Give the backbone structure.
Amino acid sequence: MSAAYATFGLAPAMRAGGVLADGGYQVHRDFVDFIVDGRPLLFQLSDLDAVSPLASDVPPAIFTAQVRGLLLEAEAPLPDGRYVIYGCPECADLACGAVTAIIEHAGDDYVWRDFAWQTAEQADLALNGYQGIGPFRFHGDEYRTALHSLLDADGPDGRRRVLLIGARIALVAKLAAALRTIGIGADIIHDADGVPAGELRGYGAVAFARGVGEEQRAAVRGAFERAGVEVAHVEGLAPIVPLLVAQIEQALDRGPAELRRLTRLVTADGEAGVEVTSACRVRLTAYRLDRLSRTHTHEVFDGLLEPGRHRIPLDAKAVRGESYLVARTAGSVLVEAMAR
């Protein structure tokens, strides 16, 4: 089968981490995704929880080596000229499984073909090949320009640090610990006065806990403005650590809105409205504070949704009173307060 020409691009993406309702957690990963014909290639692989080798948390030398490999300036890491396109977000071990493909020259162009799910040194196309994906032929100039831009920028700017501002020290400390557990740096300060601009540039978000006054919030915002740093501002919805983690994950998502898999979450009349752009697993978790400020957690939905808009009924017991809903896919998180 001859390779049809396709457009090639890159875009920031993330694998959503989080503190899960069962007490477990999954690691947050920022990476650069491959955009083929205007759409993330990852979305063509059904509900795959994976990241590209172009991740922001790998050492610069390894990141550069990955880019050089995709440019065919380095030897393929797997037999038969195969390269890892997407791997395990937790450990990047081939034994966990990876999407691989042969990358080769076709004159001045680059061709990606024979995509497969691989767990050992040799790929079995008959058993684990991805039918209907590729081959893709990319114009050489477009392909090289996109990948060289990563080298010129010294790799992706993850900015996976969050500045936490809060009056309840115990809660903020627990939030910082949870964020660090999933791979997001977190620092706690009372205000940003006197913090050098260079340090402020390392933050991707500022999170304010409830109870922080408007004067203190304005002072923090002013410090970032004077430093010329644009960051996401997170207003903590409730003193619930997994909920606050989800809010911060949403704020750190730097991927273009049009390239996200989970694009909409609304709540009304006992239902959740969810919109996804490709088939994927969606989990809905409700968090509720009762009159004694105790937290209640309910898993209200966990299933595969096809592209489009969906209406999902919610258990009235799970969302009564002060309650919030978190929607998760492998690459996106959205948070919504329930109408009261």
Remarks:
- The first strand starts at residue 4 and ends at 6.
